[in-house]
Write a structure and sequence with these properties.
This protein has one domain: 3-Layer(aba) Sandwich (Rossmann fold). With 255 residues, it is α/β, with parallel strands linked by helices. The chain is 43% helix and 14% strand. The chain binds NADP nicotinamide-adenine-dinucleotide phosphate (NAP). The site of NADP nicotinamide-adenine-dinucleotide phosphate has 29 residues, from helix 1 and helix 4.
């Protein structure tokens, strides 16, 4: 029977690549994010590329809002009794694309810290809390997409801090769910190209620097993260939990 794999941020970038990896294995993929039209297009693309898998389902909601996370959980509950794999990829750096004036003064600092907390911490925590009682036991998997920024900062501090908050959440959740045979891990990517993350604002010079920071001398690909997620969700990874897996070509140590 196909596993039910829920991917937040599944309409674009890393989340889409994760959804594609699981659809390619014939799993039932559920995509969630805020923009319904983006999700519908992604679901259609996956359906066309993987006709052997159950048709992907798209559920749009703002996951930083308890009502939005609850709506997605209800939509899933109407269709399936259990969730096998939950991949929390929704997020982004609020500093990229911030409205003019939002960076100024104390009000600007408050905006950045709150927005990054909402986008990166709350989206993951609320969807996970909404679904955790339905996780397959044993065998369920929770993955949280963190970031290299949790280790080395992100300019203003707030994005990296919001991602770092996922580490203790993963530890505590692993302790809570481990006895039920469910694992919880964070995947922390370094620079990954070809996603919506930089909103077209990454300069060639900055990209060159990011690539040179990696021992592999290349940008990360969404598929690098997706393949890691696929393996962590496999039966063979059943004793690996409460870990932060860095997928960055060695960039973290060589800052
Ligand atoms: N690309 C990188 O270099 C990199 C490096 C390290 C970590 N990451 C992390 O990897 C994850 C995926 O990012 P990406 O690079 O694939 O960028 P992306 O293409 O912009 O993906 C982010 C996704 O999150 C969704 N999202 C954002 N806020 C949301 C909310 N409040 N509720 C529901 N969905 C929300 C977005 O969809 P909507 O806008 O439609 O909601 C979008 O599909 C993020 O958590 C990011 O922080 C990325």
């Amino acid at each position: 029977m196909a596993r039910v794999v829920v991917v937040s941020g599944g309409g674009t970038g890393i989340g889409y690549a994760v959804a594609e990896a699981f659809a390619g294995e014939g799993e039932q993929v559920v995509l969630t994010g805020r923009r319904a039209e983006v999700l519908d297009r992604a679901a259609e693309r996956l359906r066309a590329a993987h006709p052997g898998a159950p048709a992907p389902v798209a559920l749009a909601a703002d996951l930083s809002d308890p009502a939005g996370a609850g709506l997605v959980a209800a939509g899933i509950g109407e269709r399936w009794e259990r969730v096998d794999v939950l991949v929390n990829s929704a997020g982004g750096n609020a500093a990229l694309g911030a409205p003019a004036g939002r960076t100024d003064g104390l009000a600007g600092a408050a905006w950045h810290w709150q927005e990054n907390f909402r986008a990166n911490t709350l989206t993951a925590v609320l969807l996970t809390e909404a679904l955790k009682e339905r996780l397959a036991a044993p065998g369920g998997r929770v993955l949280l997409i963190g970031s290299i920024a949790a280790y080395r900062g992100s300019g203003s501090g707030s994005y990296g801090a919001a991602k770092a908050a996922l580490h203790p959440y993963a530890y505590d959740l692993s302790a809570e769910l481990g006895p039920r045979g469910i694992t919880v891990n964070v995947i922390a990517p370094g620079y990954v190209a070809d996603t919506g993350f930089f909103r077209g604002a990454l300069s060639p010079e900055r990209e060159k620097t990011l690539v040179e920071q990696a021992d592999t001398r290349r940008a990360g690909r969404p598929s690098d993260v997706a393949e890691t997620a696929r393996w962590l969700a496999s039966p063979g990874a059943g004793h690996l939990t409460a870990q932060i897996i860095q997928v960055n070509g060695g960039a973290e140590h060589g800052r």
